Amino acid sequence: MILDFEKKWKTGQVLKIYFMNGDEEVKEKVFRTANRWIEESGANLSFERVEEPQNAEIRVEFGKSTRSLVGNDLLNEEIEFSNICFREAIAENLSEQKILHEFGHVLGLIHEIFHPLIPITFNYSKLKQYYMHDQGYSAAEYEANVGRTYRKNEIQYFDFDENSIMMYPIPSSTNDQSINYEQPQVLSQMDKEFLKLAYPDVEDNVVEIKNGDNIERDVEKYAHYDLYKFCVIDVCTSEFESKRTANCVINICGDIKVAVGIFYKENGGKRAGYYTYLSPGREEDALGTEFRFDKDLTVGEYLIRIFPVDINTNGKYTFEFSLNKNPDE
Predict the structure, then answer these.
(1) What is the mean predicted confidence (pLDDT) over 307-319?
(2) What's the CATH number where 253 sits?
(3) How far apart are alpha carbons 44 and 38 in whole angstroms?
(4) Nearest-CA neighbor of 245 among 282, 223, 218, 213?
(5) Domain coverage including residue 104
(6) Orientation angle between helical segments 96-106 and 24-41, nearest 10 degrees
(7) Which of 144, 169, 198 is at the close of a domain?
(8) How far is Cα 108 from Cα 15, in angstroms, rounded to an integer?
(9) Domains of the chain: total
(10) Are strands 206-208 and 226-232 parallel, antiparallel or unpaired?
(11) Residues 194 and 211 in one domain
(12) What is the pTM of this model?
């Protein structure tokens, strides 16, 4: 199981569903089947039907090619457009497998074929031929659903699960091990356990930090993260240094565009620096045991997120945080 970390909903959120077309029978089937994710996992989320599109995070349309955006990416679609579609518009023709799979994407899950621990080596030319020639995928559909890769600090994952509803069929001809994977039809036990971990009973807690704070904590349990918020009220330079015994990811995210600065990351004793922007939706991240962030910031609110890389991660992290007003301002 794989969660696209940046696209996770807020724990405890009520996700509202608006149906743009379709008869009541197919609407009810989709709503009832989607709720199986919540009912069978015990995840701390819920679905609710609404009658106005402006009140809905999820807008379902029937009669178009089957697709869904992932997690909170659904919010990026203009309100007059659907963000999850099903080709079938008649209830008896629309399978529960397809509904469960697409609503897995809605909840932030991605295809199991992208799993870092999948025990096969792909022959990508044959994989591409299978999906584009045999299955009729366009180049864009292949890239989005099968062909792309994820960095470890973009995702969190359980063990590879060939029975996951998020698994795609993989013919034996497409990999060196000649392993064949079928398309699962129901939620697996790992599907349910993972979603419960991702959306636990306790809601996400944000800790506000201020200039000069020193933090020491155990790394959060898997599929969760620590959140720290700080506010900049005058143009300044931030200094953030972390040392940790656990292999975790640190994201520093800004809600406004800021000046160019230098971001360092250390991994295995090697340091690399590069110039970048910290802007809406853009994050700086690092893997390893040492992390230093030194950047000019403009007025605004910023968020620091710290989370474990994988299910076996444990240990502590510490960080020192300071804001220094720029002398030339």
Answers:
(1) 72
(2) 2.60.120.380
(3) 8
(4) 218
(5) 2-198
(6) 60
(7) 198
(8) 13
(9) 2
(10) parallel
(11) no
(12) 0.73
